[in-house]
């Protein structure tokens, strides 16, 4: 070690700088979650806490606590063809009167921060008085991960699976008019029926809070809006009995093209480059809706987990060589329940992953779960209505009127269908808190735990 | 030959069909032109004339004239990630009361037609009673071709060229406020100044009819809207004298990324696949505007022609291996002048190509020029106002009021600047004719010449 230092001193100043610089690190973190999970609010808060770390309350972040963080700066993003994450727009919305939640994710966006810090100990500390960690945060729709299972299905298998959903409770009633139109499909009406299918998926999501919907790009088409690669839909089982069916062949060709030209490129160009991944879940929102919704969310989580099961020899590893070493599922919006319910929310979120998911170490390491609130919109309180003191939350409803709520107990495990008949929940959205100035502290719950999970080992 | 036929007969029916089918042909035609040149109206008319060939007047189309065209059908497009060309929408607009011109091109779109015909003679005729020609028509903004010269310039050379334009008549006055903002640029305002530059290009185009504007994607950003790859702009010469300038390095990196990740992929994925190319020019519109505009249009045409000069060893050929065998420049909107002026419009359009362009055989063959009207919005007439009979056109103005115009004489060559002081033009847009039914004949001028140019040799 001393010999190495002497050797380094022997090099010129330029070479020394190069050697130090090679100690700088890059970390690329994917942030995802299904529509409505709060990705934009989460990323806004994360960037805000990092940029204003010195003025805010982040006790669990070790490097900050030890006084080793020298500064955090925003930098130009590395991928020029991606949208920049609109941090300023989100902060502007929170500073308005009344404040507004940031608009939702429409596609991929990116932001880069540079964190300058003093290494804790060891060789690095000997070599240099500070290092820089370049942190790239990439936000993308969780719906895109739900497409992965399509890569190991053909059009017939996929159709059979979708058809089962479209003909079962509670989705079947909404799907019936579209299924009737499909009976009369002809070559000229294919694209129209495909549009109807995309509209049906949107309706299932908005009216019934369905989450496991394919193809994911039908819900957020972006640049592919209106192109034939999205214009496919499942066919009923009887269409797979005939030997010759031009419509079926057309749809199967589009399905295959979607897998090859849309799903795979996302995994290759983006997913494979993430070092860490945060998946946000709106467990409370699904619980609020009913049994079918939370049950489907469990299916969605388990489908999303497939993207992280890339053991040696797996399809994912062979195709894309992903390198994610830490994976975190976050149950957000913890400010919408009382603090005493947080352990239950953690247990419930864990249980949604299923037996395999919960115990499993994913291919990179252990899956972790966390309960937090990125932007805290409530205060905790207590009221006594004669029958004893109960914990409540106080905040503003979406119309910005003060509200006091007892949001109900969160069950520890996926409840049975009968549960919703006895008891309801009240996890409806609250209005965001107003930021006085863009640099004021943004209230949160456990964002410091999250930062330590994400960056701790890279800032030693 | 007889031996070959006997041999073929010896094969089974299936093999015979395969042999015949290999005689079917594919033809991929690029349709382009600068914004406002009338690409959508042109492509709408072309598709309409082909689909309704039997009911319309296309005397110069040899295969039709000889009764060898059996039928034309629309087919599913081959490229699933491209937008379909909205033919129905355009026809719907023409059928409304009052009718409207189709909306303009926003990016790439595609349509496929299958033309079934009887071969004229020779081996093909012996082998089969009919063949199919698959015709893919691909519409894309001409602005994208204006980016080609950027591939052989670095950021400093490009800046110098742009700066010359931005500081010379008549563009300098519009550019002055942006140039003043640029003097105060800092790292935080780069993206804002880039947005200002894009706005300036739009303003130069809409208010001064400028055509030679780079980067082309700044005017029609599509999926790249808001990304850093478009956020660059030229710097004044003095910024290239300092040795160290982080802003200049940032912009140069974006410029290079634009060339590599935007310009080249278009040439590789699309341009290199065209067999034939039609470039529409709005010569009359530029003439209407003034000397600087028609002079810049000549520069634009000459820049566009660079995309077709790919002799052996050229950059284009090495990079993309284009295979265009016929190239046509079309001066459209010929219905906006009297027929006696058509030869002059042809001569003027020819002269805009410059000496080299006009005489040049481009690398695939001879460049041709044609004067036509895709959708004819006027009738030819004559009036006598005492000083003798003069030819006029009659049509409806954009407010759908009857108008009789003597649009003025079209000069045979690029006129000098003084010309506009003595004489004006009146080539302002007319309202489109109304289609009674979607399948009614669409009036045109010389679309049959164009079809024969495009398809004649493939339908022998």
From TrEMBL, chains A, B:
<dbReference type="InterPro" id="IPR007413">
    <property type="entry name" value="YcjX-like"/>
</dbReference>
<dbReference type="Pfam" id="PF04317">
    <property type="entry name" value="DUF463"/>
</dbReference>
<protein>
    <submittedName>
        <fullName>YcjX family protein</fullName>
    </submittedName>
</protein>
């Amino acid at each position: 070690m001393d010999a190495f230092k002497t050797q380094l001193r022997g090099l010129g100043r330029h070479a020394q700088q190069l050697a130090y610089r090679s100690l700088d690190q890059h970390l690329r973190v994917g942030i995802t979650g299904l529509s409505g999970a709060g990705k934009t609010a989460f990323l806004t808060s994360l960037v805000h806490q990092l940029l204003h770390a010195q003025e805010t309350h982040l006790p669990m972040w070790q490097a900050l606590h030890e006084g080793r963080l020298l500064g955090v700066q925003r930098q130009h993003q590395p991928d020029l063809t991606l949208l920049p994450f609109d941090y300023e727009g989100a902060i502007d919305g929170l500073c308005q009167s009344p404040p507004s939640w940031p608009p939702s994710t429409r596609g991929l966006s990116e932001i880069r921060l540079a964190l300058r810090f003093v290494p804790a100990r060891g060789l690095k500390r000997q070599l240099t008085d500070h290092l820089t960690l370049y942190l790239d945060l990439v936000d993308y729709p969780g719906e895109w991960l739900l497409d992965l299972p399509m890569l190991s299905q053909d059009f017939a298998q996929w159709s059979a699976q979708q058809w089962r959903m479209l003909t079962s409770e509670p989705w079947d009633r909404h799907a019936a008019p579209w299924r009737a139109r499909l009976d009369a499909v002809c070559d000229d009406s294919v694209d129209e029926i495909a549009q109807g299918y995309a509209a049906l998926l949107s309706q299932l999501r908005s009216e019934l809070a369905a989450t496991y919907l394919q193809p994911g790009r039908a819900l957020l088409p972006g640049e592919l809006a209106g192109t034939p690669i999205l214009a496919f839909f499942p066919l009923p089982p009887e269409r797979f009995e005939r030997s010759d069916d031009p419509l079926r062949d057309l749809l199967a060709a589009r399905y295959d093209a979607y897998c090859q030209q849309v799903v795979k490129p996302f995994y290759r160009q983006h997913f494979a480059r993430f070092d860490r991944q945060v998946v946000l879940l709106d467990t409370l929102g699904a619980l609020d809706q009913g049994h079918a919704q939370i049950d489907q969310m469990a299916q969605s989580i388990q489908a999303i987990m497939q993207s992280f099961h890339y053991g040696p020899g797996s399809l994912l590893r062979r195709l894309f060589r992903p390198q994610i070493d830490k994976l975190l599922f976050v149950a957000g919006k913890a400010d919408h329940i009382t603090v005493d319910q947080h352990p239950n929310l953690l247990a419930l979120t864990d249980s949604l992953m299923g037996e395999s998911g919960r115990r499993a170490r994913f291919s990179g390491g252990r899956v972790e779960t966390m309960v937090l609130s990125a932007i805290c919109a409530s205060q905790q309180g207590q009221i006594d209505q004669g029958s004893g003191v109960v914990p409540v939350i106080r905040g503003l409803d979406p119309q910005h009127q003060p509200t006091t709520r007892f949001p109900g107990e969160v069950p520890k495990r996926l409840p049975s269908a009968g549960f919703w008949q006895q008891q309801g929940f009240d996890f409806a959205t609250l209005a965001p808190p107003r930021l006085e100035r863009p640099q004021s502290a943004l209230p949160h719950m456990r964002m410091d735990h999250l930062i330590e999970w994400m960056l701790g080992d890279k800032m030693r």
